[in-house]
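In response to reviewer comment 3 from the previous cycle, which asked for concrete evidence that the modeling workflow produces usable outputs, we include below a single protein chain processed end to end. The sequence was submitted unchanged, and the resulting structure tokens are shown without manual editing.
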Amino acid sequence: MNKILILGSGSFAGSALIDYLLNKKFKIIGVNRSIKKKKYFLPYKGNLNIKNLLIHKININNNLDLKKLLKIIKKNRFDYIIDFLGQGMVSQSWDHPDHWIETNILNKIKIIDYIVKEKIKIKKYVRISTPEVYGDNKKKILENFSFNPSTPYALTHATIDSFLKLYYKQYKFPYVIGRFSNFYGEHQQLYRVIPKTILSIIRKKKFNLEGNGRSKRNFLFQKDFCEGIFCLIKKGEVNNTYHFSGKNLIMIKDLIKKICKIMDYDFKKLIRYTKERRSLDKTYKLNTNKARVKLGWKSKISLNDGLYQTIKY
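The workflow returned the following structure tokens.
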């Protein structure tokens, strides 16, 4: 039975992956800053194999907690470490950039350096990154494109990704990076655009649309997202990066219109326009050829089908 450590196990991505991997009989230890989330944000709560899961409450910005995590890593000798851990929220990173740097760079480096210096053997360190490292880009982005981050949040991701490459070069640290377009689905936190739109319609409340809603994103359903990570675990080559994206680039305004149409609600009644958040990247177009050819991955669930399933939930 493969043993996996999931950093950031309480995130939407982390909890969805736990549920997915428990179904494949993995033994999992998860760590998260908070373990008090409601069960409807944690799909694994109802998993029949939950006996194979252990969750620890750990804040890596607390020295005692960080030491506890390092002991867990040394004791358990994991096959794989999946890294979702970090400060999220893009625009808020401008308010306290030092918080993002402390969590996403400085203390994460301590974890990676400990694994190397203690000679702890792992098959792969799977790092879940973001297209935001490339900044606003109208071209179809390949994995070797230069970084051009627009926010402190994106800068921290670009930095830790670069650090992993450096540690492979120096120590052969077995990292693999996955960059995913916006993922969504059941159990997602309610402040994200898709569940927030659905909830606003249900409650007949206004949805604040930043700017004119013309920024474009690709959306990837959670099952396709989890299968992408599983491909990285099983087939991803170390010292490599792979892109995963939905098939259709869509303006946020049109995405909300699509949800309104499915739920038979008047878009004009729903929307309240607000000012655009600073440093908003207009678009990312990830080229996924490498993941499709090398890993055999593809996006299977259309945006329409994924939205219907999420709305039903």
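The first strand starts at residue 3 and ends at 7. We consider this sufficient to address the reviewer's concern, and the full set will be provided in the supplementary archive.
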